[in-house]
Amino acid sequence: INWHSSQIILRHLYDLQDDQFAVIKEYLELETKRMHDLERLITPIIDWYINYSYVKHTIILSPVGSSKLMSRVYKNLSEIKKFMNNYNSVKVIDQFDEHKAVSEFNMQSAYRSLRRIQKVYAIPASDMAAGRYKDRTIGDPMDACECYLMSKYSFEEYDTYGVIDWAVQAYNKWFTDRPKCVDIDKLHYYTRSASMTTGFSFETILGFSNLNHSDSTELSAHFSLMANALNIRDISAQSADIIYDKYDDFEQSNLFRNFRYLCRKGKSVRPLTYDSKCRYQTKNSPYRMIMPFKEEDISSNPNIKLYHDIIYDEEIKTITDMASKDLSDAAYYFNGKITLLDDKRLGQLKWFSENANPILFGKLNERIECITEYSTKTAEGYQTVNYGLGGHFSVHMDAFTDGPKLNGNRLVTILFYMSDVPDDGYTVFPNLNYVAHCRKGSALVWLNLYLNNGTVHSGTFHGGCPVIKGNKWIMTKGLYEEGQHLTYNWRDNKIINIV
Ligand SMILES: O=C(O)CCC(=O)C(=O)O
Ligand SMILES: [Fe+2]
């Protein structure tokens, strides 16, 4: 079980504890009873032994005395042995299910998620260790042991800067009461190894025996450390951004860089345009005259619209209750391959066909057909996703780029937001500088393809920023080319281009 991959499954950790505690309690009760029974059994035997020890040597002179002694010893000792081997409590131990427990692997990926949050949002380790992000509280402070583990897991991931970043925190916190959980030799070893990789002697700089503990020196020591390692000359700004921008230089494309930038920014970076209008949309439906859609134009090329209050609280509750019972790890689909890579996507999902609740999903289909004016007949099911610790979906496109599928390509995406995530976990379109917030009841609807020939629109690159705090529920549905009134024949598109 990948415990941190959704909020729902994380909640089961409490149940796991309840179960395991019940086993421990039962074991303890059985063992206590056994000790009492053993004591009750052995007390009269010892009493007898003490009494008879005065006549020990005379008793065996009589045949009755001898046989009495023999049967007594035979009976007593074998009975005691029975009590010393307690099969009942051993049986209870078997119920202690270590397969269900949190594994080393789980811990490693959980810490990897923390590190992802740290990198995407450029949170200095000192802030994160204090449970802080900008002026927000994002959690409890981390102790020396936790910082040490961050360094250790970074080491195991070949994340050199993570090693150093967290070693500084671990060393500083370790100094006060030197907790045993920090293996200081290993911490030296991680630091030394990271030094070798970066060609810079962190160990010398850390010179950990004379580390200064005041907050500000700790921070500047930390920044100059990183700056030196990253060859940043102008460290005067001493800002985390400089360091994290450097991180980016090592890794990824402009697309990812802008994605990260927008995740941090939390709002769209673009001027209001002629397209930026909103309206009560009735689509000429008499019913919608009474209850119009609240429609907001986001972009005309590609066509993106945002709808408010388009899925209702009762509907959301029904769906999330159904999904919570049967979630599984969300996979990442790329070039025909399905992989479980938490760096690409971390969350848990449940697919629903309309049959799962024909009335509810029938109504949603109707609503979707009304706003998009496309048919849902050839569409895929409803995909419900719940995110967990650092849950995210890195930049991707919903359209297939590896050849048409049975019903053609994913023409339209409908992304329903089914919970409120106040401060992060946005959906970001890096090529459009657009940031959508996760607001319960709203939906983002966009066209993945150019309508003249079915080419994939590069503006539709998007991703879900890591969730720092809160419970993010979404649901998506894709409408396909097949069965729509299109001006081109999708079957002619043997090769799928991105423009
Ligand atoms: O979680 C998000 O905000 C985006 C999800 C998404 O892009 C998808 O499920 O395809
Ligand atoms: Fe997507």
Automatic annotation (TrEMBL):
Keyword check for Endoplasmic reticulum: yes
Enzyme Commission number, as recorded: 1.14.11.2
InterPro entries xref list: Oxoglu/Fe-dep_dioxygenase_dom (IPR005123), P4H_N (IPR013547), P4HA-like (IPR045054), Pro_4_hyd_alph (IPR006620), Pro_4_hyd_alph_FE2OG_OXY (IPR044862), TPR-like_helical_dom_sf (IPR011990)
Cofactor list: L-ascorbate
Keyword tags: Dioxygenase, Endoplasmic reticulum, Glycoprotein, Iron, Metal-binding, Oxidoreductase, Signal, Vitamin C
UniProt similarity note: Belongs to the P4HA family.
Name of the featured protein: procollagen-proline 4-dioxygenase
Protein source organism: Macrosiphum euphorbiae (potato aphid)
